[in-house]
Specification:
Structural class: mainly alpha
Strand content: under 5%
Shape: elongated
Distance between the termini: 50 Å
Number of domains: 2
Largest sheet: none
Helix content: 55-70%
Radius of gyration: 22 Å
């Protein structure tokens, strides 16, 4: 009932996290908090750990994860500069260059995404 009310004001998942934090602070075990709120056990344990570590409120309720993880994030700019300087005929040549110069093993489809992203940005 409380989660339903908070869902009017907040995102439903965020409302579950807030109620879970209150129940954790009240001393309920994680399994019971998960059952009462509908929040998965893993998220309840994660939230409990953040509360017990004394993190600030903003980081306690931040949900991390999801999204695509990219192996080339840190060297993306260098890779693009290398591609512009040299004449690569295929995506496989670019894959081989990245493996040789940066020690990163990626698939041709990742190169395709990288090239599409740079083409759309300018």
């Amino acid at each position: 009932m409380v989660i339903g009310f908070l869902s009017v004001l907040l995102n439903a998942t965020f409302a579950k996290r807030v109620v879970s934090a209150v129940l954790i602070a009240a001393g309920l075990p994680s399994t019971q908090v998960s059952e009462l709120t509908g929040l998965c056990y893993k998220r309840v344990r994660e939230l409990r750990g953040r509360l017990e570590s004394g993190e600030d409120a903003e980081s306690i309720f931040r949900v991390e994860g999801g999204g695509r993880h990219t192996k080339t994030k840190d060297v993306e700019k260098l890779i693009l500069e290398e591609i512009e300087r040299n004449d690569y005929q295929s995506q496989q040549e670019i894959v081989d260059m990245i493996a040789e110069k940066y020690g990163i093993e990626i698939h041709r489809s990742s190169v395709s995404r990288l090239l599409k992203k740079t083409a759309s940005s300018g």
